[in-house]
Amino acid sequence: MVEAHALSSPVAGRGAAVAGAPAVTISAPAGRGAGGGERRAMRGRGWAVVGAAGLGLGGLALGVGLTPALAGSAPGAGLPRVLDCAGKAVYEPSSYVLACADANTYFQSLHWSSWTAGTASASGTYVANDCQPSCAAGHFHKYPGTVRLSLPKLTPYGRLFTQMRYSYTTTVVYPLPQRPLAG
Question: How confident is the model at residue 56 (pLDDT cuts 50, 70, 90)?
């Protein structure tokens, strides 16, 4: 099964964790997890919506200072960045935490195939805690995954990608009925 999710960060409007900072939401269709919602997804519950503290922007919620996009001759000079949990604008990160509050979901070993003015694409490993029996005692599971960043916008922190779409492949074991369900 392929799980696909989209993260978006409307830079203007719709409230923010810090005045002037981009607001961030993550959502997933019913029965699918996103960010801190994997536990709910594995139990088949509805939409998961997490604020900035749970999405790779935990530094914003904590008031950590932000670094504007790099300029000059640095790698990727002039291209959009993505904010990490510390609120730092980064270019081609090798890992990216989706749930900053507890780091229960993240990407590792990201290999960027492209990073342009409009989009960035990478493949890597999606890591999620199953939170069974609790998140503290849960187990981390790894799945092949892809990331696509898009919708760059000029912000007070530099040009930032404001949407992430990610997907990962997993196998689901679903119990089947052992007798007819209808009388």
Answer: very low
CB 71 within 8 A of CB 65: no
How many C-beta neighbours within 10 Å does residue 170 have? 14
Report which of 160, 162, 161, 164 is spatially closest to residue 67, judged by C-alpha positions.
Answer: 160
User: Which tokens belong to 88?
Assistant: 């730092």
In 10 A of CB 66, how many CB atoms?
A: 21
Domain boundaries, the chain: 2-169
Give the Cα separation of 174 and 45 in Å (integer).
Answer: 15
- Return the residue matching tokens 């007070």: 156
Q: Strands 25-27 and 140-155: what pairing?
A: unpaired
Report the residue count for the chain. Answer: 183
pLDDT higher than threshold 90 for residue 45: no
